[in-house]
């Protein structure tokens, strides 16, 4: 095995030299990526070194227990390991040869791309020369074209100027037509407004006539009420006059009655005085008495007449009072009617005032309408004058239009002549234009070819740079793989020895499990025979030791199972890592643009490294647990041996006591079990 490892190391030395030479030429762009990959690989190496150290510890532990393994099996395991090492070295050689072939193919492709680039550069220089020569020809043609274009521009400017003048004349004519059309529209609008105003005037006149009729009706009613009021006033005055007359007559009659009474009283007083005076002078004044009697009769007649007059006056006064009462009632009725009439008169006056106000408004509106009518008439007159002026302007514009049409005809004739000249010149320049078009097409085609070649060159440069990067990455990976191969070639011996030791340990485990099963059967039988109970009662320390031995054996079995599972997981992870590396190599060989997917693969590698670290930690824990189990196992073996000795002593003492008593010894079962256990 050491010879094969030395041969592999001697074969890898020149390849390592080549890898070191290849690694010395990486570009700065891939430095970060290579560093990260190297760090990951170093971490993986460290994790593998830890696992190898753990396995060495396991082998060191298992070598102590490997005394019972036969030598023939060790030789067979060594041959198997040598065969595996040979297969691994062959696989590594094939991998190195494949990598070298891929590198040579990439170098050949790079040389082919360099040749194509050189040919493309030569063709580009040739095309540049052709372009320069044709650009000179084009410059000459462009100079001649500029001269002809300047002449054409002058003629086109003249044409444009004439077209502008004609367009200005047409615009002026259109503007005049628009103004005439607007004036016609305005005149039609004014006529419509006049018609509307006339209609409004007619309506206002009708409303004024109706208002006049209503005003006349109201005036007639007011005159009628005034007449009735005058009649009532006259009757009232007449009644007042009659009343005053009757009152005067009554007053006169009363005055006369009072005067008559006063005169009568005076006369009575006088007569009494006379009677008193004449009583003494009766005799002397007989005649005077007769005269007095006569005067008294006369006065009595007068008094009777006055009384009759007073009665007549009283009757007249009663009738007059009745008439006065009737007159008062009539007066009151007349006053009520006069109040009603005055109320109606006030209402009528208010209505008349409102109607007068409305009439004033209507008259003001009529005045306003008349003014507006006058304004409309003035506007009609102004519109007619403006229309006449516009008609004159239209006539003048039509005259100008005729002149402009003549000018346009002349200009169109001149334009036709110029167009004929231009067509002739264009026909003359058609050949030059076709030549220019051909030259332009050729120049465009050359430019497109130059662009395509530049694009191809740019793409080739990019591919060249990418290939260089891929070559650098591949060289780095090859060096890393060689280093891994060296490390693996160093640790292959340890792996094979560990596998052999694992097989041996598994056999020992099987043997120990068989022994444990036998012991358990013995314990069960002893318990059935009430030996365990006696042992627990007689020697509890040995009973506890046996129980601990059983528990520790179970723990040892569980630890070995965990170790086997962790080793299986580690092997599975190593296979996955190798598969990922193979995938990376294939992608790098087939797809040069696989640098984008490298980040993802690096992340996967990191995760796998973390998993490997976790597995190695679990393996270390399992190894520690196994060591603890080994120590507990040794301790338990020692304790078992001590307990067996005690049991043997106890049984021998018991058999001796039984033989001393003359009974049959019962220790044969233990000797038979011991002989079976020894076998």
TrEMBL record:
Boundaries of every Cilia- and flagella-associated protein 58 central coiled coil domain copy: 299-490
Biased composition (Polar residues): 12-28
One Pfam family recorded for the sequence: CFAP58_CC
Biased composition (Acidic residues): 30-41
Keywords annotated in UniProt: Cell projection, Cilium, Coiled coil, Flagellum
Domain of life: Eukaryota
Any coiled-coil regions, as ranges: 359-522, 549-590
Cellular component, GO, one term: cytoskeleton
Protein's name according to its UniProt entry: Cilia- and flagella-associated protein 58-like
UniProt organism field: Homarus americanus (American lobster)
Native organism taxonomy: Eukaryota, Metazoa, Ecdysozoa, Arthropoda, Crustacea
């Amino acid at each position: 095995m050491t010879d094969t490892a030395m041969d592999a190391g001697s074969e890898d030395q020149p390849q390592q030299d080549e890898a070191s030479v290849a690694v010395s030429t990486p570009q700065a762009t891939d430095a970060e990526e290579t560093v990260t990959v190297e760090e990951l690989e170093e971490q993986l190496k460290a994790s593998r070194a830890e696992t190898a150290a753990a396995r060495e510890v396991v082998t060191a532990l298992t070598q102590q227990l490997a005394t019972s393994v036969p030598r023939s099996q060790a030789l067979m395991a060594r041959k198997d390991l040598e065969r595996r090492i040979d297969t691994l070295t062959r696989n590594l050689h094939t991998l190195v040869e494949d990598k070298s072939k891929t590198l040579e193919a990439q170098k050949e492709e790079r040389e082919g791309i360099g040749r194509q680039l050189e040919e493309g550069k030569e063709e580009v220089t040739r095309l540049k020369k052709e372009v320069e020569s044709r650009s000179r020809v084009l410059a000459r043609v462009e100079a001649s074209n500029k001269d002809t274009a300047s002449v054409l521009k002058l003629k086109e400017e003249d044409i444009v100027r004439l077209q502008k003048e004609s367009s200005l004349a047409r615009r002026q004519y259109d503007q005049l037509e628009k103004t005439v059309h607007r004036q016609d529209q305005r005149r039609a609008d004014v006529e419509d407004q006049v018609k509307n105003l006339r209609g409004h005037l007619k309506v206002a006149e009708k409303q004024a006539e109706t208002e006049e009729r209503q005003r006349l009706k109201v005036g007639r009613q007011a005159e009628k009420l005034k007449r009735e009021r005058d009649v009532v006033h006259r009757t009232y005055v007449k009644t007042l006059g009659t009343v005053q007359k009757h009152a005067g007559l009554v007053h006169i009659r009363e005055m006369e009655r009072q005067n008559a009474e006063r005169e009568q009283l005076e006369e009575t007083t006088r007569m009494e005085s006379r009677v008193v005076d004449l009583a003494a002078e009766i005799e002397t004044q007989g005649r005077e008495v007769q005269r007095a009697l006569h005067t008294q009769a006369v006065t009595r007649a007068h008094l009777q007449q006055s009384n009759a007059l007073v009665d007549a006056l009283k009757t007249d006064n009663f009738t007059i009072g009745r008439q006065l009462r009737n007159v008062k009632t009539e007066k009151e009725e007349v006053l009520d009617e006069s109040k009603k009439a005055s109320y109606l008169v006030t209402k009528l006056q208010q209505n008349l005032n409102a109607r007068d106000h409305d009439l004033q408004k209507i008259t003001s509106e009529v005045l306003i309408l008349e003014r507006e009518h006058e304004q409309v008439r003035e506007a009609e007159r102004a519109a007619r004058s403006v229309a006449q002026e516009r008609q004159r302007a239209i006539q003048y514009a039509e005259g100008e239009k005729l002149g402009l049409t003549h000018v346009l005809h002349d200009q169109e004739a001149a334009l036709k002549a110029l167009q004929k000249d231009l067509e002739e010149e264009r026909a003359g320049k058609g050949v030059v234009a076709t030549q220019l078009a051909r030259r332009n097409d050729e120049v465009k085609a050359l430019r497109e070819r130059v662009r395509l070649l530049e694009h191809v060159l740019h793409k080739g440069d990019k591919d060249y740079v990418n290939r260089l990067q891929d070559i650098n990455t591949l060289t780095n990976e090859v060096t890393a793989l060689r280093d891994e191969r060296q490390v693996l070639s160093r640790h292959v011996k340890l792996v094979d020895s560990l596998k052999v030791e694992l097989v041996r340990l598994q056999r020992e485990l099987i043997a120990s499990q068989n022994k444990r099963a036998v012991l358990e059967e013995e314990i069960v039988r002893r318990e059935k025979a009430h030996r365990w109970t006696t042992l627990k009662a007689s020697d509890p320390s040995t009973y506890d030791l046996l129980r601990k031995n059983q528990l520790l054996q179970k723990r040892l079995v569980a630890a070995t199972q965990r170790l086997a599972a962790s080793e299986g997981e580690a092997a599975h992870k190593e296979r996955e890592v190798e598969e990922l590396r193979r995938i990376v190599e294939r992608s790098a060989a087939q797809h040069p643009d696989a640098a984008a997917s490298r980040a993802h693969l690096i992340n996967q590698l990191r995760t796998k490294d973390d998993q490997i670290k976790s597995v190695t930690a679990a393996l270390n824990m399992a190894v520690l647990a196994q060591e603890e189990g080994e120590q507990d196992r040794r301790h338990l073996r020692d304790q078992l041996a001590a307990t067996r000795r005690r049991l043997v002593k106890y049984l021998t003492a018991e058999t001796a006591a039984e033989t001393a008593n003359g009974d049959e010894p019962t220790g044969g079962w233990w000797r038979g079990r011991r002989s079976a256990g020894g076998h």
